[in-house]
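User: Just a sanity check before I run the rest of the batch. Below are the structure tokens for the first item. I only need the designed sequence back.
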């Protein structure tokens, strides 16, 4: 850990840690109540302009979490007045989780430091939080420059968003967006363990899982400057994200997760059983071992389907109990404030 790390300061700025609940009343969000969180890795070409852009918008509490850049990212960020923390681990997800340990203001506006997101959209991102939302996602596809995203990346993003809608039952338009606004209180309710680029996917899934009040707003999205290189590998990271979407369904939508495995088991067993039956009817040849394999696959598939149904019932009950506890807690706080 370097000397310029925020770890030595223990806090970034003063905040009262208030909890935002859904309400018809609008709360005022002051600039000093917001931490601009920017995870970085070799973003020397753009980080200075990003920080200056937020300063121009009136947001001076900028926190850069650096993943061990080999260029001058940290030095530039420090010179522009940002707090700098060198993360202790690897990956964007780990950087975000570690950064939240040092943030003492109630609101966070998170974005990448590659210059693709516009600081002028800050007020638009934060406005829903003033109305009681806990998590805001910036939809890049609403105002995207023509050359901002390659065709392969665009196809992959849309495929992942459709998969998210099917698997997790929510439509967030752009779950891979790096432009996020959220309350610290809601972030602490999430069970995050992702270390890499799947942090955005995990945030979206956890919001659905925990009933976090989430909304989507349109934001502009520009092409990455030519002198700036991406740290994202489309095929490798895209595959990792799809696998994360599926694996996270285990606790958020167990009926889909175990049900799909069950259907696959029944279908594969059925195919083998059909082959065994055809061989016996057509040629009089018996395949005892294959018959046992097909029976085992079908039986396992049925069991997985049943387990998925039971797990879904337990998850539904758990969510209902959690909502009731949250309502009781909210009412208790309201009585204490009166």
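Assistant: Here's the designed sequence for the first item:
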């Amino acid at each position: 850990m370097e000397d310029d790390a925020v770890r030595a300061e223990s806090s970034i700025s003063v905040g009262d840690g208030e909890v935002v609940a859904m309400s018809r009343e609008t709360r005022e969000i002051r600039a000093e109540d917001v931490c601009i969180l920017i995870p970085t890795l070799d973003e020397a070409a753009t980080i200075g302009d990003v920080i200056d852009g937020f300063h121009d918008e009136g947001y001076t509490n900028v926190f850069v979490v650096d993943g061990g850049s080999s260029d001058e990212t940290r030095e530039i960020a420090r010179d522009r007045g940002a707090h700098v923390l060198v993360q202790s681990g690897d990956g964007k997800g780990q950087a975000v989780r570690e950064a939240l340990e040092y943030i003492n203001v109630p609101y966070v506006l998170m974005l990448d430091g590659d210059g693709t997101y516009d600081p002028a959209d800050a007020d638009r991102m934060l406005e829903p939080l003033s109305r009681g939302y806990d998590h805001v996602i910036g939809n890049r596809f609403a105002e995207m420059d023509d050359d901002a995203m390659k065709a392969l990346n665009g196809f992959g993003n849309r495929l992942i968003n459709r998969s998210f809608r099917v698997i997790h039952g929510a439509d967030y338009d752009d779950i891979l967006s790096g432009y996020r606004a959220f309350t610290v209180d809601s972030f602490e309710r999430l069970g995050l363990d992702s270390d890499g680029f799947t942090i955005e996917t995990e945030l979206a899934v956890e919001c659905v899982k925990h009933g976090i009040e989430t909304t989507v707003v349109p934001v502009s999205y520009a092409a990455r400057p030519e002198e700036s290189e991406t740290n994202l590998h489309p095929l490798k990271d895209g595959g990792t994200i799809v696998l994360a979407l599926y694996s996270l369904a285990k606790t958020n939508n167990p009926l889909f997760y175990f049900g799909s495995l069950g259907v696959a088991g029944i279908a594969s067993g059925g195919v083998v059983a059909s082959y065994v039956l055809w061989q016996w009817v057509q040629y009089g040849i018996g395949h005892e071992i294959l018959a046992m394999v097909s029976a085992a696959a079908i039986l396992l598939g049925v069991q997985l389907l049943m387990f998925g149904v039971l797990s879904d019932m337990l998850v539904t009950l758990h969510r209902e109990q959690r909502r009731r506890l949250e309502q009781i807690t909210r009412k208790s706080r309201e009585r204490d404030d009166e």
